[in-house]
Amino acid sequence: MKPWSRLQNIYYMNRYAERIEHLRAFMRARDLDAVVIYNADPHLSEYPALRWKQVEWLTGFTGEAGDVVVTMDEAYLWTDSRYFIQAESQLDGTGIKLQKARIPGSVSVDEWLLASQGEGARVGVDSFCTSVENYKSLIARFDVVCIPDMLTPLWEDRPGIAQTPIYSINPGESVEEKLDWLMETLSEKECDYIIISALDEIAWLLNVRASDIEYTPVVISYLLVGRDGVKWFALKDEIEDDKTSATIELLTSKGIRCLPYNEVSIEISSLEDALIWVDRQTLNIEIFSAIKCKKYFAPSPIQTRKAIKNPVEIDNMRETHLRDGVAMENFLHWLENKVNDGSRVSEWDAALKLAEFRRQIDDYVENSFETISAYGAGAALPHYHTPSQNAPLLMPSGMYLNDSGGQFLRGTTDITRTIPLGVCTELEKRDYTLVLKAHIDLASSVFPSGIPGCRLDAVAREALWKYRVDFGHGTGHGVGYFLGVHEGPAQIRQNLSGAGLFSGMIISIEPGVYREGMFGVRHENLYLIADAGESEFGHFLKFEPLTMCHFDTSILNLSLLDEWEIAWLDNYNRRVYESIGTFLDEPVRSWLREKTKPVK
Amino acid sequence: MKPWSRLQNIYYMNRYAERIEHLRAFMRARDLDAVVIYNADPHLSEYPALRWKQVEWLTGFTGEAGDVVVTMDEAYLWTDSRYFIQAESQLDGTGIKLQKARIPGSVSVDEWLLASQGEGARVGVDSFCTSVENYKSLIARFDVVCIPDMLTPLWEDRPGIAQTPIYSINPGESVEEKLDWLMETLSEKECDYIIISALDEIAWLLNVRASDIEYTPVVISYLLVGRDGVKWFALKDEIEDDKTSATIELLTSKGIRCLPYNEVSIEISSLEDALIWVDRQTLNIEIFSAIKCKKYFAPSPIQTRKAIKNPVEIDNMRETHLRDGVAMENFLHWLENKVNDGSRVSEWDAALKLAEFRRQIDDYVENSFETISAYGAGAALPHYHTPSQNAPLLMPSGMYLNDSGGQFLRGTTDITRTIPLGVCTELEKRDYTLVLKAHIDLASSVFPSGIPGCRLDAVAREALWKYRVDFGHGTGHGVGYFLGVHEGPAQIRQNLSGAGLFSGMIISIEPGVYREGMFGVRHENLYLIADAGESEFGHFLKFEPLTMCHFDTSILNLSLLDEWEIAWLDNYNRRVYESIGTFLDEPVRSWLREKTKPVK
């Protein structure tokens, strides 16, 4: 840890310790034994909006996954292996202890509470930030006290609920078509209503986007669809911008009523003698408690429907990836020159430069997540946080890892390249090659339609396992269309889950290897899941590359690759050049032609 | 279908229709809307003992998996894809209809009953042949009437409960050691007792074997282990044979009380103020209902412990497989000569001849399952039943498949070889090669300790999927030590299951391809799961071959195999020759030397 960082921690320690103590006074006044604070907003978003960055506010921890439990004498943060090192550093001096989640022998929030506070303990939660599922689990053992906006009385200057301009997009299917499908799905289950809380589901259904949350272009809102029409609870303030007014006018013309955000509870509590579809994982307990009619519990039908992209979305995603590839190649060319000519380039500078290239693309809106720009040992942290000040400098040896992506009006990108900057060790070369081998083995696989992604995970890892190497994160995640860069239900990972892979889905392939204190390698492309033909044995699928950016071949250990794997690589690199070469200026084009030459 | 078979069906039709009608009269008298008959004995064995072949008695269907539902006007048999063709043929003319289980859109027994009879219908079951798990599922929707030995009043000459000579074996761990471990496990969970109903678990724990069930050398019995000792409910008749007397004497000397089989209910109902461990999947509802004390529900701890073989068991399994390999090679040599010199050899003759070779092994007890001996199109049925009369003859073209195994005093074997008998088509050659490729890819894999088998399944299938080929059965199953040829919990298959693979387990690898009306290919070996080293990324495992019998290389399409796959094959075949060559007489030895020469 650098000296400035230690000073910073001492300053923060006081701040966070003070907040925890304020919370305990609040708990004492309400006779609570414990409070649980989930890293969630009222829509159970993966990245909570600013107003709900409550875990960061309370503890200083900035990772994406973290739940907090505070009792009268203890405070713990639960997070997974991606953030162990970061959490230990950020919690240092705050008095808050780390609980390692998702490792063998780990203890869940519920189990820890039971052991520490006993059955029937009074446990407070923010009812807006607790899913029905989490609540059901807590209530089985504890006396759960629901407190809406629990932290607001303690949180000076707590941000309000964002309301950014709302605009329409045209992704190949009209709102009417989508609503017709949804109404049909409801009637199949004899449901009268569905309450939709997941923000990407609402954005998909209404073909709207905004910037209420960083990285994911959604509108903070609820949607109630049912027998007496569609009600969208989206308005936080007076609407003053033209885009929003036009969008609301358009939706109103389609019979969709746009209502104030906070009227959802009143509206939903007025439903009587009806059956309403509820997704336990994405609805918060505050809104759920307002429902007085009967409930039908099931995952939202929109999830899988949204994941299967339509032909317009697929075409646009292909086009967007060509443009993103151009930005990437311009960046990689710039990077190589800068490092070679001895310029002072830090991880942060590199991240900024790439954003600059992406910003030149017409449709660019924002990044799709926080760029990981990591040189050497930093890359050994799969979720490295690039510091804006005093970031490490890139040197002409070893490897640099860049994991980044953009939100564009016509698609979402996510790419990781690991780039050799000069002399590499044999271990770096071997790991670089093995991770590419793992990537190729999965990318070239063929598989039955509907197969759960967890069954394919080993097709990538086997290449690593043979060398007694493995990695702790998933191999692939679904990606939205100008929506969340992580999109369910499809994924390719270790955890057993029945969610199937179907034609039209978009998914990442991103194996890695991380050597603590040394280096990290990850090779990531996005792929369209495409038809691979029928036979008497069924319908088969394959991966069609969307990402168009070459893989560096200069440090490959070719003895580790089979002939057909080398052929895949040569073919992919040639395709990259053929697809985007004409969009590149000289000398980048000539440089890329060299870079994409066959390895043998 | 052959003419004699149709006549047979007409005769049977009357018999089975009559039995169903008798059952309906029985149902009417008891006011039952439906009865469910599971293909199970009171111990939920995979192969029920003769007395409990009730599905076969009622319907004529002889497959291993089949549940029956009879209502006042309908009768259905549920079975899976392995038996669709067989069931359709055997049910032809009986009035019993087939329900296809485990296919997309299939309806379960419970769902069908709900739709047909409605909630709250009176459903009869044989309480001895219904697991607690199945009962819990039924009782949630129906008024379940438990009838012990339900079919006995209708079943003239129903076989009694077998009592065959019981003998002890010495598999490297004493009964005392095993009981000490079990008592410790019970106290960890604060249990006072465990009731064990699964026959292979009892045989393992007490180091006893018998022949109460065909193919699996177990004693039909219950075992109660707990704070006041061990009670074994195993005695059905007066004991008259010396082996059994000696075994009982030995166990008695260890403090184990041997009691009559039917006293288990009385004994278990007398437990008070205690906590008893119950495995819902293997205990029947009749014995379960007798329990008056508190229950702890969990899978039996014996399952995983038994699956991890001790060093003596492993050594004995290796030795047994050498002997089994000798029998196999003698058989394959005999077969090749017979077919080449134009002798008349039927599928049945071949099965008998192989059994004859196995019987020459000192420790041979019986076969470990019904031998599948199938030529040509017959082999396209993964669970082909070789007819004892008019079995097809083997011709000098196409392929012959033999899936067989033995029970030996020091191990259990299970092997499939597909043997080209002469000219083969290009498709036969391709499929033969691809299935071998799939086998090699999995057999040579390395994987993290504890990985669920379902995550490895695709490592084999990917070789087939690339050619749009697949197969409907699992890729591998656990195998017992002189116990069940199918042994849980480990397996390698499509269905998601968290049961892990650990060092010391024994498992089959047996991919296949089946072309209806043409041919079938399956290549099966048993493997020991063995250590493959540790690294910073964890503990890794690999497969070490136990089966020692060459794979025929004469019809390989070498262009489909990678160099390293060919090297695996050459290495395996060389090892077979080196391991068992010296145990073979001339000319078999010279023949095997030729057969195991490197392919290139």
Largest chain-chain contact?
A-B, 34 and 35 residues
The share of residues in extended strands of chain A comes to 15-25%
Oligomer: homodimer
State the domain count of chain A: 3
Question: Could you say which overall geometry of chain A the principal axes of the C-alpha atoms support?
Answer: globular
CATH class category name of the largest domain in chain A: Alpha Beta
Helix amount of chain A: 25-40%
User: In what order do the strands lie side by side in the largest sheet of chain A?
Assistant: 4-3-2-1-5-6
Query: What is the CA–CA distance across the termini of chain A?
Result: 44 Å
Report the structural category of chain A: alpha+beta
The CATH topology of the largest domain in chain A, please?
Answer: Creatine Amidinohydrolase
Second CATH tier, the architecture of the largest domain in chain A: Alpha-Beta Complex
So, the CATH homologous superfamily of the largest domain in chain A? Creatinase/methionine aminopeptidase superfamily
Mean pLDDT of chain A: 94
Question: What do these coordinates show?
Answer:
- Two copies of one chain form a homodimer.
- The first copy, chain A, has 600 residues and is an alpha+beta fold.
- Helices cover 34% and strands 20% of the residues of chain A.
- Chain A folds into three domains: 3-146, Creatinase/prolidase N-terminal domain (Creatine Amidinohydrolase, Chain A, domain 1), CATH 3.40.350.10; 167-306, Creatinase/prolidase N-terminal domain (Creatine Amidinohydrolase, Chain A, domain 1), CATH 3.40.350; 308-595, Creatine Amidinohydrolase (Alpha-Beta Complex).
- In chain A, the strands form eight sheets. A six-stranded mixed β-sheet of chain A has the order 4-3-2-1-5-6, with helices on both faces. A six-stranded mixed β-sheet of chain A has the order 12-11-10-8-13-14.
- The longest helix of chain A is centred in the middle third of the chain and has 30 residues, at 311-340.
- The A-B interface holds A 445-448, 451-452, 454-459, 462, 465-466, 468-471, 494, 496-498, 515, 532-538, 540, 562, 564 and B 445-448, 451-452, 454-459, 462, 465-466, 468-471, 494, 496-498, 515-516, 532-538, 540, 562, 564.
